[in-house]
Specification:
Blueprint: H1 16-28, H2 33-49, H3 52-63, H4 69-76, H5 78-105
Helix pairs in contact: 1-2, 3-4, 4-5
């Protein structure tokens, strides 16, 4: 079973007006609030994955080891994640080389 099809219970508080609007939309589409919220969350995450600003924040979190490669990949896709991983490796190697040079010069 893929992680996309596995279900995880979440609970959160949201402004009443926002929940009421989601309920109204659910009634219009003859579905339930959960379907509306899942749809909205998917759309938000899809849009965020295409935002350069969000990509930069995600990349920085990856470079700082705040998120794993798998988490990075789930947010920005395989190709973009592979590019970030390569850049992280290059930056790490460059840092080591710079420090080695500084130590050799002293």
């Amino acid at each position: 079973m893929s992680s996309e099809s596995e279900k995880k219970r979440v609970q959160f508080r949201a402004p009443r007006g926002l929940v009421d609007r989601a309920d109204t939309l659910a009634a219009v589409f003859e579905t339930d609030r959960t379907d509306i919220l899942i749809s909205a969350l998917r759309e938000y995450l899809r849009d965020a994955a295409h935002s350069d600003e969000v990509k930069q924040e995600v990349a920085e979190a990856y470079y700082d080891d705040a998120i794993t490669f798998e988490e990075l990949q789930s947010l920005v896709g395989h190709e973009e994640a592979a590019n970030f991983r390569l850049l992280k490796q290059q930056l790490s190697e460059a840092f080591v080389d710079d420090v080695a040079e500084e130590l050799a010069d002293t």
